[in-house]
Design brief:
This protein starts with a helix and ends with a strand. It has one domain. With about 80 residues, it is α+β, with helices and mostly antiparallel strands. The relative contact order is 0.24. The protein has helices at about 5-10, 55, 65-70; strands at about 15-20, 25-30, 35-40, 45-50, 60, 65, 80. Strand 1 (about 15-20) and strand 2 (about 25-30) form a beta hairpin.
Length: about 80
């Protein structure tokens, strides 16, 4: 998946799950203290909440950004809801 496709999915409110290095991650949405947020987490780990796509793309896990993770995996490892 390229950056443009990912941004379009996020901006349209689609929830995304994907597998990277045998770990499962998700991108979901919610409201915290009255603010709409985008939440990114590895399953059963603490999440990171951000307010915009640009912030989300720069969130790091294991020394790699979300943008780099998504760009390096094949479509069969990404599920969109």
């Amino acid at each position: 998946m390229n950056k443009k496709e990912l941004i379009e999915l996020i901006e349209s409110g689609r929830e995304i799950e994907f597998s990277y290095n045998n770990k499962r991650f998700s991108i979901t949405y919610g409201t915290i203290n009255g603010k709409e947020v985008i939440s990114f987490c590895e399953y059963n780990k603490d999440s990171t909440e951000v307010e915009c796509v640009e912030e989300l793309l720069s969130v790091e896990r294991y020394g790699i950004t979300l943008e780099e993770m998504i760009g390096s995996i094949t479509e069969e490892h990404i599920w969109v809801f």
